[in-house]
Amino acid sequence: MSDGPADFAALEHAYRRARWTILGHALFLFACCVVVVLLRRAFRLPPALLGVVLIVALLVFGGDIMNFLRCRDRLRRCQA
């Protein structure tokens, strides 16, 4: 089913790359949330604005999140 160490190394590399991508998305989302909180306070916008930011982030980053989960699952199966 697998080609051995070369396949495992490629899978591990893909997992690490996906993990860094998720970390970058998390930092970007945190920065966006800080900006939204500041804008909400400055312009007295409704509290639901933060929820909109979170929902949009899930929609935009959903593919990368699924890629990360898929790589993690494959890596766990390969190690077992």
Oligomer category: single chain
- Share of helical residues: over 70%
SS-based class:
mainly alpha
Backbone shape: elongated
Q: Whole-Å distance between the termini?
A: 14 Å
Strand content: under 5%
Average pLDDT across residues? 93
Uncertain stretches of 5 or more adjacent residues: none
Instruction: Give the SSE string.
Output: HH
Number of helices: 2
Q: What is the C-alpha radius of gyration, as a whole number of Å? A: 18 Å
What summary fits the major beta sheet? none
Secondary-structure map:
Layout: H1 5-43, H2 48-79
Helix pairs in contact: 1-2
Describe the structure.
- With 80 residues, the protein is an all-alpha fold.
- 89% of the residues lie in helices and 0% in strands.
- The protein has 2 helices and no strands.
- It has helices at 5-43, 48-79.
- Helix 1 runs antiparallel to helix 2.
- It is elongated, with a radius of gyration of 18 Å.
- It starts with a helix and ends with a helix.
- The model has no long low-confidence stretch (mean pLDDT 93).
